[in-house]
Amino acid sequence: MVGVAAGGSALLLERTDQASVFGSGSTDVSGATVDTTVRVGVLFGSEKVVVADDAQVDLSGVVVFGSTGIRQGPVSSGPVVHVHVHASGGFGSVQVVRKSDSAATGD
After folding, report:
1. Less CB within 10 Å around the terminal CB: N or C of the chain?
2. How far apart are CA 44 and CA 30, in angstroms?
3. How far apart are CA 44 and CA 51, in angstroms?
4. CA-CA-CA-CA torsion for 47, 53, 56, 62, nearest 10 degrees?
């Protein structure tokens, strides 16, 4: 468990599937065939979550003095996998990228 004091309250990086402290990491859930929840934490670091091109993604949580971001994918006419990404931490970033975007940039 990692604690960050911010504005008198503490953010805890606990119950995370992936955490980065003073570094970077990546979690690939692009092969998920059922609805999935991913919990990521950052502290002076960055995390990238790779999802399928047609996944429906919800991004929630708080990164104090940091950022979160997602590029929504195309609308699928068939069944899709829902991925919920919960981000927490401080002084870092959590980015959700599509598999094709990740492959195009060599990440």
Report:
1. N
2. 26
3. 23
4. 20
Q: pTM of the entire structure?
A: 0.79
Q: Write out pLDDT tens, residues 35-44.
A: 999 999 999 9
Quote the CA–CA distance of 94 and 79 in Å, as a whole number: 26
Residues 17-42, buried b or exposed e (16+ Cβ, 10 A)?
Answer: bbbbeeeebbbebbeeeeebebbbbb
Predicted confidence (pLDDT) per residue in 12-65, tens digit: 444 567 788 899 999 999 999 999 999 999 999 999 999 998 899 999 999 999
Point out which residues pair with 60 in neighbouring strands: 86
For residue 102, which phi and psi values (nearest 5 degrees)? Answer: -65, -40
